[in-house]
Design brief:
The chain is an all-alpha fold. The chain is 42% helix and 0% strand. The protein has four helices and no strands. The chain has helices spanning 7-21, 49-57, 72-77, 79-96. The longest helix has 18 residues, at 79-96. It is flat. The chain starts with 6 loop residues before the first helix and ends in a 19-residue tail after the last helix. 1% of the residues are buried.
Length: 115
């Protein structure tokens, strides 16, 4: 192997490694028709504002912020104000079966594991 030290090259090498171990399924083929499901249908999931508010109030303000750079302290302090907005966003996402593109992004940091 070769030794690399700059961040971009390391990220490119990791990306190449991860791509090499995953299989790529063809996406242009339709799924086969399996007929009616023998399982009962799942009831609708309702996201409640009170549940979001409770989760926000229980955030640890001493933890680091996420990729959105919004600190837990801000979310906790504004929980009563932003809970209805977040509830509407989450419910719409769930009902439509889609998520915003920015939710699909992630900051990935490789962690060395012995072995």
């Amino acid at each position: 192997g070769i030794l690399v030290s700059d961040s971009k090259t390391k990220a490119d090498l990791l990306n190449h490694q991860f791509q090499s171990v995953f299989t790529h399924e063809p996406t242009d083929e339709p799924l086969p028709d399996m007929g009616p499901s023998p399982h009962p249908s799942m009831p609708d999931i309702i996201i409640e504002e009170s549940g979001i508010n409770k989760l926000l109030k229980n955030l640890n303000p001493h933890k680091a912020s996420g990729p959105d750079q919004v600190h837990a302290h801000v979310l906790k302090e504004l929980s009563d104000t932003i809970s209805p907005i977040l509830q509407a966003i989450f419910q719409k996402s769930l009902d439509s079966g889609t998520v915003p593109e920015s939710w699909k992004e992630a900051n990935i940091a490789p962690i060395y594991k012995k072995g």
